[in-house]
């Protein structure tokens, strides 16, 4: 319970310390940047609406909650990467063990072939 409510206490604390400033939303311009820059009598657009304190509070709550979800997803992703590395490590060790067994079998086969070659040449010389 303590972990799930911790983010809310942080948000609430930030609201109590925040100042009561109004935020002005400017309208989006559909004109290209070149048209705005070339216009000599450029004036700043008038604000569409003033955002109320409740809107600011809602925006901040959403931002903090999205940050909380992003941090939780990042922690889950980190643990998933660690699990993936563990599984890959096990798989690579298994693969290298199989490769070493095959190489050992090839070496034993080569020793047998060389031994037969030597024994065969030794038998031909003494006959």
UniProtKB/TrEMBL annotation:
Keyword annotations from UniProtKB, A to Z: Calmodulin-binding
UniProt keyword Lipoprotein, yes or no: no
Top-level taxon of origin: Eukaryota
UniProt GO MF annotations: calmodulin binding
Keyword Chaperone annotated: no
InterPro entries for the chain: IQ_motif_EF-hand-BS, P-loop_NTPase
One Pfam family here: IQ
Family of this protein: Belongs to the IQD family.
Role played: May be involved in cooperative interactions with calmodulins or calmodulin-like proteins. Recruits calmodulin proteins to microtubules, thus being a potential scaffold in cellular signaling and trafficking. May associate with nucleic acids and regulate gene expression at the transcriptional or post-transcriptional level.
PANTHER family: IQ-DOMAIN 5-RELATED, PROTEIN IQ-DOMAIN 20
Name of this protein: Protein IQ-DOMAIN 14
Organism: Cajanus cajan (Pigeon pea)
